[in-house]
Amino acid sequence: MDTPASPPVEIVPISRLFCSPTNPRNNDAAVPHVAASIRRFGWQQPIVARRTGEVIAGNTRLKAVQQLGMQEVPVWWFDAVGAQVHRSLEASAIHQVPVGAWQSHPGTHARAPALHPPRR
């Protein structure tokens, strides 16, 4: 069985991207936390976008890097055709968090505050 090759990731100016107008998530409160995570750990997952620049997965990450003043981001271009495929990918990205559950490990909670930005 052949394993598909990893899609190429391209470094793209953030000016080429825009948040999806159909993104149903209203998670602006998460932006400072995602920004803190990117600042601390760097990029761990590229943004997924159409060639038009519409972000399919990573709207919060895009807002976070705008807040950080970054100029470029890693992007995986989504070239599949068809509205149903696009909606399926978008739905998959939107519903990732509620599907998973948090595990409790010794020391986890002691480290968690380091990810949160300082309160003002």
List keywords for this structure.
120 residues; alpha/beta; Conserved hypothetical protein from pyrococcus furiosus pfu- 392566-001, ParB domain; 34% helix; 16% strand
Structure in words:
- 34% of the residues lie in helices and 16% in strands.
- The chain is an alpha/beta fold and 120 residues long.
- It has helices spanning 31-41, 59-68, 83-94, 96-99, 108-111; strands at 10-13, 18-19, 47-49, 54-57, 72-77.
- The chain has a domain at 22-99: Conserved hypothetical protein from pyrococcus furiosus pfu- 392566-001, ParB domain.
- The protein has a five-stranded mixed sheet.
- The model is unreliable at 95-102 and 108-113 (pLDDT under 50).
- The longest helix is centred in the C-terminal third of the chain and has 12 residues, at 83-94.
- Strand 3 (47-49) and strand 4 form a beta hairpin.
- The chain is built from five helices and five strands, in the order E-E-H-E-E-H-E-H-H-H.
